[in-house]
């Protein structure tokens, strides 16, 4: 395994960014398409057969000795948030290529085919919906919900797909059968401070917290801020403030029980100083690995909204953007990774992922493992996101061993002029 070469791949991909500060590669944009096209060239150089599925996932295949066997897959994503980091997703993709390059150099033949998958639209930063590509592959896509989804510039998902030469009416065809895949591996940066603070190199993810996301519209009545007596007001922002604090109080009560909640965005209409706020849009994110705790936080949110109606005469409309269940990852693969780390003398620990990943959707399709390496300072979705070359080397080694193990290397037959 060649860490420097993997980092070269990383830098080559990250040359495609629409901002100078950090990395910005929003899915289905021109710069994203260019990065994908450029990466495809590297895959073809490694003699992989490459295809794009109907949702824009890039799938590269290294044939196995028995092509009918299910493939051992690995992958991650190349789309980013606005002014994001160089490692989130991109590292996992670059690592998969490095694994395949190394196998090619060593002339390894495996019984099972290998697949490298670059998932489309992992980040929710463009359309407000995360992991669209892997959801489509796992048959988890809600087509009706996606029909009305637009980005900040008003471009619909359908239009963005069309510009990529894709048809939103066909994306359900990206779904794959369980029998096609033997296992899926994703190497990813932790995006949190746990590994670094515990002094461990590898995080073996046991479960992924799933987000439930709401857009909540609270309607009151816009009115003159000078002439409207307090008793006559229907102030949507004051009501929203109560909801925000109620969500925070509930999440604090559930601290340590496996769920957290955040109101991360608030848009006020008309949003001027001398008008009583007429309507407010809140974006709420509830996530956790414990279903009961998540459900309790959702109930606390509903209760707070119901109180608005009673106490303030405000109307609340709840729109569920996404609602996903926490996902348990494969125990056997986790045990395999633990054994690999022990054998290589790499420190490792079990952990849960607070962030969603493509692995959580792939886990519905086949046994899945998610491998974390430390994020320096726990920083992610930030231009200063970084992981050390030493930690990346460890991640590469573990990923390589795991894939080679599952794909079942065929011992080379001693040929003429060659000794065993
Ligand atoms: Zn990611």
TrEMBL record:
* Binding residues annotated for Zn(2+) 2, in chain numbering: 88, 123, 381
Q: Cofactor note from UniProt?
A: Binds 2 Zn(2+) ions per subunit.
Q: Which InterPro entries match?
A: Amidase_Cbmase, Bact_exopeptidase_dim_dom, Peptidase_M20
Entries under SUPFAM superfamilies matching the protein: Bacterial exopeptidase dimerisation domain (SSF55031), Zn-dependent exopeptidases (SSF53187)
- Cofactor(s) this protein requires: Zn(2+)
Keyword tags: Hydrolase, Metal-binding, Zinc
Coiled-coil regions listed: none
The terms under GO molecular function for this entry are: hydrolase activity, acting on carbon-nitrogen (but not peptide) bonds, in linear amidines; metal ion binding
Top-level division of the source organism's lineage: Bacteria
Detail which positions bind Zn(2+) 1.
77, 88, 188
**Which residue spans traverse the membrane?**
none
Provide the residue positions that the database annotates as binding allantoate.
213, 274, 287
Which family is it part of? Belongs to the peptidase M20 family.
- The protein, known as: N-carbamoyl-L-amino acid hydrolase
């Amino acid at each position: 395994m060649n860490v420097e070469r993997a980092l070269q791949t990383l830098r080559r991909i990250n040359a495609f960014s629409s901002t100078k500060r950090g990395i910005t590669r929003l899915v289905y944009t021109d710069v994203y398409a260019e990065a994908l096209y450029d990466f495809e060239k590297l895959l073809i150089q490694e003699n992989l057969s490459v295809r794009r599925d109907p949702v824009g996932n890039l799938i590269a295949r290294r044939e196995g000795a028995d092509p009918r066997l299910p493939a051992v897959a690995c992958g991650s994503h190349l789309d980013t948030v606005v002014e994001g980091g160089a490692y989130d997703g991109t590292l996992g993709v670059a690592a998969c290529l490095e694994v395949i390059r190394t196998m090619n150099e060593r002339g390894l033949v495996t019984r099972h085919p290998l697949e490298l998958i670059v998932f489309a639209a992992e980040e929710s930063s463009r359309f407000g919906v995360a992991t669209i590509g892997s959801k489509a592959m796992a048959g988890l896509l809600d087509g009706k919900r996606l029909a009305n989804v637009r980005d900040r510039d008003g471009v619909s998902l359908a239009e963005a797909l069309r510009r990529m030469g894709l048809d939103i009416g066909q994306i359900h065809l990206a779904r794959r059968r369980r029998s096609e895949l033997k296992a899926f591996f994703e190497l990813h940066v932790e995006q949190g401070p746990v590994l670094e603070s515990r002094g461990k190199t590898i995080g073996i993810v046991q479960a992924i917290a799933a987000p439930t996301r709401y857009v909540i519209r609270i309607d009151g009545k816009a009115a003159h801020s000078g002439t409207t007596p307090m008793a006559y007001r229907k102030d949507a922002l004051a009501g929203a403030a109560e909801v925000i604090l109620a969500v925070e109080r509930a999440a604090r009560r559930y601290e340590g029980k496996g769920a957290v909640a955040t109101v991360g965005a608030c848009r006020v209409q008309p949003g001027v100083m001398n008008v009583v706020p007429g309507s407010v849009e809140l974006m709420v994110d509830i996530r956790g690995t414990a279903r009961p705790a998540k459900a309790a936080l959702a109930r606390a949110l509903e209760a707070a909204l119901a109180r608005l109606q009673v106490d303030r005469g405000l109307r609340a409309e709840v729109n569920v953007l996404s609602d996903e269940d926490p996902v348990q990852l494969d125990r056997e693969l986790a045990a395999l990774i633990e054994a690999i780390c022990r054998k290589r003398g790499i420190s490792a620990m079990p952990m849960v992922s607070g962030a969603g990943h493509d692995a959580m959707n792939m886990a519905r399709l086949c046994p899945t493992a998610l491998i974390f390496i430390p994020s320096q300072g726990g920083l992610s979705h930030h231009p200063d996101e970084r992981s050390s070359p030493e930690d990346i080397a460890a991640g590469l080694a573990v990923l390589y061993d795991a894939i080679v193990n599952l794909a079942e290397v065929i011992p080379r037959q001693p040929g003429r002029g060659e000794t065993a």
